[in-house]
Design a protein that fits this description.
By secondary structure, the protein is an all-alpha fold. Helices cover about 55% and strands about 0% of the residues. It has 14 helices and 2 strands.
C-alpha cells in the first residue's frame, strides 16, 4: 500500500532504461547471466538479471516477468509436453491494463496490479490459511479499506521518491520510531531454504527431486540442471526447487503412485 517492494524502484527506472539504444539493451541482456546471485531474500543479482532480461517488454508485461520464477524459455525447456499444453489454456496475468493510468507511470500500474492480484490471491490468502490452521484471528491494519483508497488517490511519488521506498510512511513515523528502524532495509519473512538445500537438506532434497522428475510433470535433465546451478552458487533456484520438493512430498502422502503419463487428461 505504501510502496515497500524493491521492484517498485525497477518500475520507476524501467521507462528511462528503455530509452537507451536497442543494441545497448540487447548487450546488457546477454550479459545478465554473468551476474552472480545470492541465496537470500535480498538477491540483488537476481533482481538485476530479471530487470536486464525484461528490457524488450513494456509496462506490466515487464513487471510480470520480474515476479516469475521461470522465464518463458525456461518453462518451455522444463515443462513436459502435457503440462505445456495445459498451461497454454491458462495464461498468467497480474492485473488489468485498462485502469485509466498513463502507461508511463509504471509505479502506479504495478501498485494497482499488486493490489488487485498479488495481495488478495497470494499474501492475504496464505496468511489466512496459516493463521486459521491454528485458530488465530489475523488482522492486517495497513489493508484498511479507507487507507488503501486514500493511497490509490495519491501520486506514485508518495510511494517511491527518488530511490526511497515508502517515503510517506517514513515521514509519518519519523517522530515515533528510532532512525535505525526507519533506515533499516526491508526484511522478508523467509527461512534460509536456499542454504538448507545446499547443506542440511542436500541429500533429502536431491532424492526428492529425482523422484519428482520420474512423475513426468517436468523433464528430468532441466530439473537436474537447476539443482546443479543452485549447488554451484551460479543461480538462486530456491523457489522452483522448493515447489518441486513440496509437490513431490504432497504426492507421496496422498497419491504415491501417480504419474502424469498414466493420469487421465482431465486430471493433468
Amino acid at each position: 500500500v505504501f510502496g515497500g517492494y524493491p521492484r517498485y524502484l525497477g518500475a520507476k527506472v524501467l521507462p528511462l532504461y528503455q530509452k537507451l539504444p536497442r543494441f545497448l539493451r540487447q548487450g546488457l541482456s546477454r550479459a545478465a547471466p554473468l551476474i552472480a546471485e545470492r541465496v537470500s531474500s535480498r538477491n540483488v543479482g537476481g533482481w538485476a538479471r530479471r530487470f536486464l532480461a525484461s528490457g524488450a517488454q513494456t509496462g506490466l508485461e515487464a513487471y510480470s516477468r520480474w515476479m516469475e520464477h521461470l522465464s518463458v524459455e525456461e518453462k518451455a525447456a522444463l515443462y513436459s509436453d502435457r503440462l505445456l499444453a495445459a498451461c497454454r489454456d491458462s495464461p498468467a496475468r497480474i492485473g488489468p491494463r485498462d485502469n485509466g493510468i498513463a502507461e508511463a507511470d509504471l509505479v502506479a500500474q504495478a501498485f494497482q496490479a499488486d493490489l488487485s492480484r498479488y495481495l488478495p490471491e497470494n499474501l492475504l490468502a496464505l496468511a489466512d490459511r496459516a493463521s486459521m490452521s491454528v485458530g488465530l484471528e489475523l488482522r492486517v491494519p495497513l489493508c484498511d479499506v479507507r487507507l488503501a483508497e486514500f493511497m490509490l488517490n495519491l501520486p506514485s511519488s508518495f510511494r517511491v521518491r527518488g530511490v526511497t521506498l515508502k517515503p510517506l510512511l517514513k515521514e509519518l513515523l519519523r517522530d515515533r520510531l528510532p532512525s535505525e528502524i526507519l533506515s533499516q532495509k526491508k526484511q522478508g519473512f523467509m527461512v534460509p531454504l536456499g542454504h538448507w538445500f545446499r547443506d542440511e537438506m542436500r541429500s533429502w532434497t536431491e532424492k526428492s527431486l529425482e523422484d519428482f522428475g520420474r512423475r513426468g510433470i517436468v523433464r528430468v535433465d532441466p530439473l537436474r540442471a537447476f539443482w546443479k546451478e543452485h549447488l554451484s552458487g551460479r543461480r538462486n533456484r530456491t523457489d522452483i526447487l522448493w515447489a518441486a520438493f513440496l509437490l513431490e512430498h504432497w504426492f507421496r502422502r496422498y497419491h504415491p503412485d501417480w504419474r502424469m503419463d498414466k493420469a487421465p487428461a482431465s486430471s493433468s
